[in-house]
UniProtKB/TrEMBL annotation:
Keywords: Cell membrane, Membrane, Transmembrane, Transmembrane helix
One GO term (biological process): sodium-dependent phosphate transport
Source organism of this protein record: Mesorhizobium zhangyense
Record-given protein name: Na/Pi cotransporter family protein
Membrane disposition: Multi-pass membrane protein
Length: 578
């Protein structure tokens, strides 16, 4: 039988591959448009521990159907400081499992129905005015195109079996020895790296296997290479991001390389186990089935999907106990002394177990707020380019902003309706203080940012140094242990000029400083003035409620309730504290 290469092979293969990849894109875009923001927020909340990270990664990737999008999302969240490196590693492990759900779905024999479903959902997409309905239709249309594209590819690849020169070439891609197995893995990894989609590579392999072009063991070997090549996208996404974001990408690469290196020596044993297991999925994948008078191998895609799923689950179970090891090793990659600075994005004292105990929760909030204040004061060290200060004001501010949100959320939990008035008043005071502290930190960030951006001349630099020293001293009103205390001298011996005087000095610089330089100093003085106002407001807020007495009465009440025989002399004051 004569084969028209263009009509019988090129058209269905290229068209099918295009529809397959377009379907992947449509399905991913539709689902992500519906839920990616919710998924990102869910991930930021859920990935608190390694186990939760694996579950969150599996669930989200299973929903959005793109391990590539998932790992890029994780890298971005790590870069933003929302997710730490340790839970990010476990999320990536879960993403590897979640993406196999898509591989299993692709293996379903629904190809001929794909076109009619794709047409129906495309009509819904075109005529619907509701954005949510359009996104659902887009996802379903993509899902249907995946099957139709795979069906076209399988039909277009089948004639290659009748071309001796093609079959002779493909015989070199046969995973019948360890050397050939490694060759197949590397070729699949290179293809996946080029097209940035492990699902697309596995779809192509499934089509070749179903058409009988590749034997099923070789098709399975190619799926290993797809898992290896998919790591290139997260690495590329991390190139211009923070060191921790790069480390998250390195974790993705390391996990998949280690998994493949462990699986390759066990490949031929695992193939025999898979051959036995395939009896539960329909029989031997190497046995052809006549469909329309033509031989096809419908169980090869199933075998590839099953193997890919089992491989990723096995890999995660094997490496999960070593999440801490990955974290320690990767944390040393590109490590500098600046990274030894405390991570202020993670609360140190806010224990959820204490939230139900008012007497213990209040001191925890006070300690964390003081820690937030300490983080804000570090912007002065950044402005002075101190050796142990964080190198990037923006990254440090992002960490303090995350801490501020955690403090506010935790303190809000303490605002229970059954609390006495004085305790509610104390919680409200702490919320106010936390808010003022966040605003003070933002002003301090502006101070550091402006000083770091501009190179000042000698006279201008003297004004800047005086302004920074003035703010340093002002902070001691609410941070008694901050900096170096003033020496004991007669009152008024140590004094700093007011902001108005520093502003006048700046305007008088004249030719000693450029217009941009003077403008920067004036903006800097504005930030310092706001900071000093907030310092006075925090100090006043602390004095507005007799916190020590309210807390002491709360402790007594708790102790009496735990020991009813012990009658105390104090009662709870139903009125505001003096």
């Amino acid at each position: 039988m004569d084969i028209d290469i263009f009509k019988d092979i090129l058209v269905p293969v290229i068209g099918g591959l295009g529809l397959f990849m377009l379907g992947l894109e449509f399905m991913s875009n539709g689902i992500q448009a519906l839920s990616v923001n919710k998924m990102r927020a869910f991930l930021a909340r859920a990935a608190g521990t390694p186990i939760k990270g694996v579950l969150a990664g599996t669930l989200i990737t299973g929903v959005i159907q793109s391990s590539t999008a998932m790992t890029v999302m994780v890298v971005g969240l790590v870069n933003a400081g929302v997710v730490a490196l340790r839970p990010a590693i476990s999320v990536i492990m879960g993403a590897n499992i979640g993406t196999t759900l898509g591989n299993g779905l692709i293996a379903l024999p629904l190809g001929p129905l794909g076109l009619i479903f794709a047409g129906a959902f495309s009509l819904l997409y075109c005529f619907s005015k509701n954005e949510k309905v359009r996104n659902i239709a887009l996802a379903c249309m993509g899902f249907a195109l995946i099957f139709y594209g795979l069906n076209l590819m399988t039909g277009g690849l089948r004639p290659l079996r009748n071309m001796p020169e093609v079959m002779e070439l493909l015989q070199t891609l046969k995973a019948d020895s360890y050397f050939n197995l490694i060759k197949c893995v590397l070729i699949a990894a290179a293809i996946t790296a080029m097209i940035h989609s492990s699902s697309a590579t596995i779809g192509i392999v499934m089509g070749l296997g179903a058409a009988g072009i590749l034997d099923w063991e070789t098709a399975v070997a190619f799926s290993l290479g797809a898992d290896l090549g998919t790591t290139i996208t997260s690495w590329m996404a991390s190139l211009n991001l923070s060191k921790n974001a790069k480390r998250a990408a390195y974790a993705h690469i390391s996990i998949n390389i280690i998994g493949v290196c462990i699986t390759v020596p066990l490949f031929f044993v695992s193939i025999e186990v898979l051959r036995w297991g395939m009896q539960f999925f329909g029989g031997d994948p190497s046995v052809p089935v006549l469909i329309g008078g033509k031989e096809t191998f419908p169980l090869v895609p199933v075998a590839v999907g099953v193997y890919s799923t089992v491989f990723n689950i096995f890999n995660t179970l094997l490496l999960f106990p070593f999440v801490g090891v990955f974290d320690r090793i990767l944390s040393r990659v590109g490590h500098t002394d600046a990274e030894d600075v405390e991570d202020y994005s993670t609360p140190k004292f806010l224990d959820q177990k204490l939230a139900s105990d008012f007497a213990k929760a209040i001191p925890a909030v006070q300690q964390e707020t003081a820690r937030h204040l300490q983080a804000g004061a570090m912007f002065l060290d950044i402005a002075r380019s101190s050796k142990n200060a964080p190198s990037d004001p923006g990254e440090h501010y992002l960490a303090t902003d995350i801490l501020s949100r955690d403090i506010r959320a935790y303190t809000a939990l303490l605002m229970k309706e059954d609390l006495p008035y004085e305790q509610l008043d104390l919680v409200a005071s702490l919320i106010e203080e936390a808010d003022f502290t966040a605003a003070l930190t933002e002003s301090m960030h502006q101070v550091a940012r402006r000083v770091k951006r501009e190179k000042f001349s000698g006279p201008a630099n003297a004004i800047v140094e005086t302004a920074l020293n003035k703010l340093d001293v002002s902070l001691r009103d609410i941070m008694p242990d901050h900096g170096i205390a003033n020496p004991t001298m007669p009152a008024g011996h140590v004094s700093y000029p007011e902001v108005d005087e520093l502003r006048a000095r700046t305007l008088a610089l004249g030719p000693d400083a450029g217009a941009v330089e003077r403008g920067t100093i004036l903006a800097l003085l504005g930030s310092i003035e706001r900071a000093e106002i907030l310092i006075r407001r925090i100090d006043a807020e602390r004095k507005s409620v007799n916190r020590q007495n309210v807390l002491a009465r709360a402790v007594q009440k708790r102790d009496r309730s735990s020991n009813p025989k012990d009658e105390g002399s104090f009662g709870l004051n139903p009125l505001p504290a003096e």
